[in-house]
Amino acid sequence: MSAQPVTITLTGAGGQIGYAALFRIASGALLGSQQSVRLRLLEVPQGLQAAEGVALELTDCAFPLLHSVDIFTDPNAAFEGASVAFLVGARPRTAGMERADLLQANGGIFGPQGRAINDHADDNIRVIVVGNPANTNALIAQHNAPDVPPERFTALTRLDHNRAIGILAQEARVHVSEINGITVWGNHSATQYPDLSHATISNAPALDTLDPLWARGEYIRRVAQRGAEIINTRGSSSAASAANAAIDHMRDWISGTPQRWTSVALPSDGSYGIPEGIVSSFPARSVDGSWKIVQGLTIDLFSRERIEASVNELLEEHNAVKALGLIPA
Description:
alpha/beta; Rossmann fold; 2 domains; six-stranded parallel beta sheet; 11 helices
């Protein structure tokens, strides 16, 4: 076991996603069976008691890899020395709330967290934003951490990617390991585009083996609306699958990916005509601890139109948070 524990900060620790993630992180699912972890949990005052209950349960598990658990309401203290950050807690949209109100409320969360990461986190910090609107919340945090390389801030579209694989495997009646080459483009929202153009099923082109009406109709809607489907079926939103995807994302980022790519929302460098700076989902591989956008994929007209629709939504959110003063003009 490593003598030096890795410090991991998780926000919204009293919520269902945090609850689902923390026990897996403490058991070694993130960093492996030889790496101890120090958990620092951030919560708002009204969520403090729930976080304290989670900490009690973590203690009761007697995880060999768990060095310590500390709980904070101050982000400056919570991110002290952190090299991994899961930003889970966010302000959900409620009845009657306008989009500008939602963005403003989340700016009040992710702006201070970005500044705390800038001032107190480890130089090698890696950040995954889970709380929605995840892409734009990552943008806000990133702009409030000017000393941290922008590419250290990412948002969760691995959940959409995993959903896209699972739904396709179920339709094709194959194991998920037989699916390769899916990309989720754009925003983590209903406009996202799960793209099968380069996907394969058992090494055969997916679009050659599927009903085209399903592949470019019902499949896209099913992946994009999976969260709503789960709420309608389960009675509450995705928690375990979101936590699992966040761990998948961070583990691959740290440990590297094989030849297969995944989907990652990260600051655009202009690839595929997506405007530089917005946090958009791309096909990506982790190489030497950094996400690299997969280059050279052909984009047909059908795909281009759907990517642009999602990117336009991200641009609208970008312009809205800029107008609100949440990022520099």
